[in-house]
Design a protein that fits this description.
The protein contains 6 helices and no strands. The protein is mostly helical. 5% of the residues are buried.
C-alpha cells in the first residue's frame, strides 16, 4: 500500500509511472478474477484501486498548486481556483454595496440627523 505522504515527495513523472504500474496491475488482477484466479489476487483489487485513487489525488493537488502559484498576481483567477461557497453567497452583495447610499439619502442624513433626547431618570 502506498502512503500519501510518501507520494507528495515524488515528482510528476514518478507519479505517472507509478500510476501506469498500478493500472497495469489492476488490469492483470481483473483478468485473474475472470479466469478464476486465487482469492488473494481478488482481494488485492481493492487495495490497488485505492492506491490509484491516492496517486491521482496527490497528482491533481500538485498540478492545482502549480496553477495557483502561476496565477498569483494576475487580474483574474480561473473558476476552479475560486472559492466555491454557495450560489447565493457568490451572488450576494458585498459589504460596500450593502452600505452604499444614494446621494439623496446621504443629504437627508446630514441635514436631518437622528434627534437625541435627554431622559430623566
Amino acid at each position: 500500500m502506498v502512503k500519501a505522504y510518501e507520494l507528495r515527495g515524488k515528482s510528476k513523472d514518478e507519479l505517472l509511472t507509478l500510476l501506469d504500474e498500478n493500472r497495469k496491475e489492476l488490469s492483470d488482477l481483473k483478468v485473474a478474477k475472470v479466469t478464476g484466479g486465487a482469492a488473494s489476487k481478488i482481494a488485492k483489487i481493492k487495495s490497488v484501486r485505492k492506491n490509484i485513487a491516492r496517486i491521482l489525488t496527490v497528482h491533481n493537488t500538485q498540478t492545482k498548486d502549480a496553477v495557483r502559484k502561476a496565477s498569483v498576481g494576475s487580474k483574474f483567477i480561473s473558476k476552479d481556483l475560486r472559492l466555491k461557497k454557495t450560489r447565493a453567497m457568490r451572488r450576494a452583495l458585498t459589504k460596500e454595496q450593502q452600505n452604499a447610499k444614494t446621494i439623496k439619502q446621504a443629504k437627508k442624513d446630514t441635514h436631518f440627523p437622528m434627534r437625541r433626547y435627554a431622559v430623566k431618570a
